[in-house]
Amino acid sequence: MILYSIIPADIVFDGFDSNKKNDMRLIELEYMGEKIQAIPASNGEYIIARLLSTSPKAYLNPALQPGNVIKV
């Protein structure tokens, strides 16, 4: 991809690497038959960060919503 902009690259890409630090904490899990990415909390609990599915039904399931705390 080529980005044509009059704004300097330092400003455009400022903070670009900071997202990678947060993604390193994510763990991919299988929960209720669906793949999720979660952030470890404590005592075997995880906070759902992202749902990885091609099924529309999975996205309508309130138990799989990002932000929910689950035990695995």
Describe this structure in words.
This protein is α+β, with helices and mostly antiparallel strands. It has a domain at 27-71. Helices cover 21% and strands 32% of the residues. The protein is built from 3 helices and 4 strands. The protein has helices at residues 9-12, 18-23, 56-60, and strands spanning 27-31, 34-40, 45-52, 69-71. A 4-stranded antiparallel sheet has the order 1-2-3-4, with no helix packed on it. Strand 1 and strand 2 form a beta hairpin. The protein is elongated, with a radius of gyration of 17 Å. The model has no long low-confidence stretch (mean pLDDT 89).
Describe this structure in a few short sentences.
It is built from three helices and four strands, in the order H-H-E-E-E-H-E. By secondary structure, the chain is α+β, with helices and mostly antiparallel strands.
SSE inventory with pairings:
Blueprint: H1 9-12, H2 18-23, E1 27-31, E2 34-40, E3 45-52, H3 56-60, E4 69-71
Antiparallel strand pairs: 1-2, 2-3, 3-4
User: What structural category do the secondary elements indicate?
Assistant: alpha+beta
Shape estimate: elongated
> Number of DSSP strands?
4
Regions with little confidence, pLDDT below 50 for 5+ residues: none
What labels would you give this structure?
72 residues; alpha+beta; 4-stranded antiparallel β-sheet; 3 helices; elongated
